Amino acid sequence: MSTLTVTPRGKDRTTGGRGDGRKDRKKADRKGGKDAARGVKAVAEIEGKPGRKSGSRGSGRSEGRFEGKPAGKSAKKSDAKAGRRSGTKAKSRKRWLTARTCDRHALYEQSVQEPEAECDLIDQAWREQRGRACRSIREDFCGTAAVCREWVKREEDHTALGVDLDTEVLGWGRARIPEQLTAAQAKRIDLVQSDVRTVRGPKVDSVLAMNFSYYIFQTREELRNYFRAVRRGLKPDGLFLLDAYGGSESFAEMEEDRDFDGFTYTWDQHRFNPITGRAVNYIHFSFPDGTKLRRAFEYTWRLWTLPEIREILAEAGFSDVVVYWEGTDRKSGEGNGKWKVSAEGDAAAAWVAYLVAKP
Ligand SMILES: C[S@@+](CC[C@H](N)C(=O)[O-])C[C@H]1O[C@@H](n2cnc3c(N)ncnc32)[C@H](O)[C@@H]1O
């Protein structure tokens, strides 16, 4: 069973959601003023008085410190880290982030992304579906291109092409390349500004569409056109990997907080229209001094279901589509981070799954 009862963004693939020491605070059905937010463009709004002493506001912690861990890291590791930090020296050295000093892309990577887990899954899918290793990837909707960076670090023959429309986020990702990669690794990564539906370039082993970014396409026709473009960009024995989320909670208007080291991440399922299937979601960040970066990111998505996605992949010409569903840890009843091809899922309140499609 995949009982990933946390927000799909900031998803916790390797520990299976809760039960890992993080504090999730849901505010389902306690939201007001949702109408005001409809159609509002995401301009990050800074709230609060910076410079206020670090305290428990926002964190819900009496000691006024933020702990927690990036999604997907083991609880054991995090606890050890927290323990190391408990000395007074470490405390006094810590400079807390505020809404004014934070970098929203860095916070996003820390709270939402798991490039290592995604690259592990590429390797697993290739072993199981193709019996050979994947070398070239195209990361669609790459944003900061965290997966591209991880991919080229792994093997000397790995190449990565990142595609995104937004120059600002691509610039942020490009700036990380010389910081984090060797010159040889940097040569094997290319970030291009383009629409994923019209991007040109050499055919690749794998195209990735992760963190539900393709939910931006609101109609079957738009989604089919995107899937067709992906298929054209794949080698004949390539694989298209994409993730999906669902479950009863995904249709609810609710907020969920998760504490990280130095900030709280809020996933805000702000508005869902059951007639169109359109959802407006936000990510907010808040800080120990009480300041907030509201609407740091906005997502207007169509909430696609797995059967719809599979049907549209078939309409776009994909010959075979399998779903990887997460196993269950017997003791905790939570997801165990082990993904298997499955024909039957379970009706969890919230789940994340991967699809692997053959062109
Ligand atoms: C949710 S972010 C994804 C970031 C990252 N890939 C991840 O997995 O978390 C979505 C990104 O898709 C980009 N985007 C939206 N529509 C696009 C399109 N048609 N073509 C290329 N990029 C697009 C946005 O600029 C944004 O950076």
* Structural class by secondary-structure content: alpha/beta
Strand order of the largest sheet: 5-4-3-6-7-14-12-13
The profile of the biggest β sheet is: 8 strands, mixed
**Dominant shape:** globular
State Rg. Answer: 20 Å
Bound chemical compounds: S-adenosylmethionine
The percent range for strand residues is: 25-35%
Could you report the average pLDDT, rounded to the nearest whole number?
A: 82
Task: Tell me the span between the first and last alpha carbons.
Answer: 29 Å
Number of helices: 10
What is the H-and-E element order?
A: EHEHHHHEHEHHEEHEEEEEHEEE
User: Are there runs of 5+ residues with pLDDT below 50, and where?
Assistant: 1-6, 11-25, 28-43, 49-90
Query: What is the tally of beta strands?
Result: 14
Helix percentage range: 25-40%
Please indicate the count of domains.
Answer: 1
